[in-house]
Amino acid sequence: MQPTQAPVVSLIRPPAGATADRFRVTAALVLAAAAGALAVFTERAPGSWLDLLLGPVPLLLALSAFVTAVLSARRPWRRPALLVWPEDGRLRVTPAPGFGWFVAGEILLLTGLTVPVVDGQMLHDPAASASYDFLDVGLAVLAAVLIVVLAAAVFQGRPRIDLAPAGIEVREPLGRRTVPWTALAPGTPARQPSARKLVLTVARPELVHRRGLVRRAPVLELTWLRVQPWFLTDVLRWYVDHPQERAALGTEAGNERLCRALGAR
C-alpha cells in the first residue's frame, strides 16, 4: 500500500560505525573457510558428522539467511526518510540490513553446493578422471570469486547512492554509475508507484558515465537500500530543480535548507 506522502522524520544523520552486515558476512566467511579446511585436511568415513557439516548445514543456514533477507525487504514504504551525511559535500543512501543477510546466504549456499562436490569427487576419489578434476577446480574457483565479489561489496558499503554537487553516484556490487544533475530532465523524477525501483528521466544520456558491470537503463534499484522511495524521489527532484543549491549539498547550511524544503524536522 502506497503512502499519501513521504514520512516526516529527521532527515540527515551522521554515519554509523561498523555495520551489522559486516559481522554477518564475516561469520559466513568464517564458516565457509572452516568448511573448506575440513574438506581439504580431514579424512572421514561417508555419513560421518563432518559430512553433515559440509553439506546440509551450510544449506540450511543459507535458507535461514535468505528468509531473513526477504522479511527485511518487506514494507519498503515504511522505510525511514533518511540520508546519511558521511562528509562535507556528500549525502548518502546506505544499504538496508537485508542485503547483508542476502550476501551471507549466497556465501553459505555456494559453500554448501561446492565443498561437498570438490571434497568427494576431487580430493578423495582416486578414480576420478583428470577432466572431471578440472571441472571441479573450475567450480571451486568460480565459487570463490563470487564469494569474494559479494563480500567486497558489503565491506565497501555497496549498494549505495551518493549525492554530490556534480550529480548522483550509484555504487552497485559490480560497478558504478555517475548521473550528473544536468543530465536529468527538469521536474523529475516524479513519485512512482514502484517501491523497488526509481526510473530516472535522462535528457542527456551522453553525460552519464558507467564503470564495471552495470545496467545501461536509467534505473535506481531500491530493493536493498535503506530509504523511503518517495522521500528519495523528492530529494533528487529538489536538486534537479534548484541548481543553486548543489554547491551547498552536504554542508550544514545546505542540509538545513533541504530539510525545510521537504518539511523534515
From TrEMBL:
Keywords: Membrane, Transmembrane, Transmembrane helix. The keyword Transmembrane helix applies. It comes from the Bacteria. It comes from Micromonospora globispora. The chain crosses the membrane at residues 23-41, 53-73, 99-117, 137-155. The keyword Transmembrane helix applies. This is PH domain-containing protein. The lineage of its organism: Bacteria, Bacillati, Actinomycetota, Actinomycetes, Micromonosporales.
